[in-house]
Write a structure and sequence with these properties.
Oligomer: single chain
Shape: globular
Strand content: 15-25%
Radius of gyration: 16 Å
Structural class: alpha+beta
Number of helices: 4
Strand order of the largest sheet: 2-1-3-4
Length: 137
């Protein structure tokens, strides 16, 4: 199934044979203080910049109705100034493990991937819920 929007993601997760847990990492984009005027102008047009993870949230597909609900919930965290949310999925073992360390490890891997710009294996959506594709710098 091609995932072209957030609803496709939810549908695909709900159709999996094992229950799924969706992992969301909300990130902000900025340019360093020593950025050139061209880099700053590019960033103002929505290109370039450095991504910094702000907030990690895990949900089951049944805990989400749509992207708007996820975005609304993000505003209640105090970390509402994000530009992109990265998403990964994993089999939900929470029914079997009271303290699922796999989720914590997955978040650690995701945040490292974001910091190093290795996000090709993650889904990404902008603040409007539109999918993003990251190209080479």
């Amino acid at each position: 199934m091609d995932i072209t929007c957030f609803d496709d993601l939810l549908q695909a997760a709900r159709q999996q044979p094992e229950p799924q847990r969706l992992l969301f990492v909300f990130a902000t984009s900025a340019v360093p203080d020593d950025a050139t005027p061209a880099q700053k102008a590019s960033h103002m047009r929505g290109q370039g910049g450095e991504l910094t993870p702000l907030l990690c949230v895990d949900k089951t597909p049944d805990q989400l109705t749509d992207f708007a609900a996820l975005a609304d919930e993000s505003r209640t965290t105090g970390q509402a100034d994000w530009q992109v949310v990265f998403v990964a999925a994993m089999a939900d073992q929470s029914a079997y493990l009271p303290d699922n360390k796999d989720v914590d490890l997955a978040f650690q891997r995701m945040t490292q991937m974001i910091k190093y710009g290795s996000v090709s294996s993650l889904l990404a959506f902008d603040r409007a819920g539109d999918p993003l594709v990251f190209g080479a710098a």
